[in-house]
Amino acid sequence: MVDLKTEAAYEANAERYSEDWLEQPPPDDMYALLMRHFVPGGKTVDVGCGNGRDAAWLAQQGFDVTGYDASPAFVAVARKTFPWVTFHVDRLPLMESVTAQYDNVICETVLMHLPADEIAQAADRLWTLVRPGGVLYVSWRVTEGADLRHDDCRLYSAFDSAVVRAALHEGVVLHEEDVTSASSGKRVCRLIVRRPG
């Protein structure tokens, strides 16, 4: 499950983190990738949706989107800020309440908050959410060497991208990059994979 100290930090500071993210430039580089590779208008799930910003953007582009986050406080913020989108509480690596499969799955900068020994299980679970012919977008903040813990106690696990790729059985890689995010200014790895079908 999401590291408990990380979850507590988000739960206690959801409003402040949300304000910070909404003040950042929008992640237009990511949005361009989603528009290029996602199934247009498809049934979409945002896993680890935070304050709902990206789910709301997807909904505005015509996607049928639902957001999930581990933090009840974030889900409350998302529901208040973007009332036209549906949000629920659930968390990786299990996502126990989710039984559907989706045309599009997005998991934006979430995996690194899990303990490193749960990354493979979480990636495998994300892959099970993708229906045949569907697309997974997954990204994470890159931490080199040892795990790091931010001053506010958020965990940033160090793990090899091969751990994620190995879980995406027979997936067709549409895009892979290690870049500095135009929105956050942080180094991120992005992987977009289509499930054959």
From TrEMBL:
Keywords: Methyltransferase, Transferase. One of its GO terms (biological process) is methylation. GO terms for molecular function: methyltransferase activity. It holds the Pfam family Methyltransf_25. Transmembrane segments: none annotated. CDD domains: AdoMet_MTases. Gene3D superfamilies: Vaccinia Virus protein VP39. This is SAM-dependent methyltransferase.
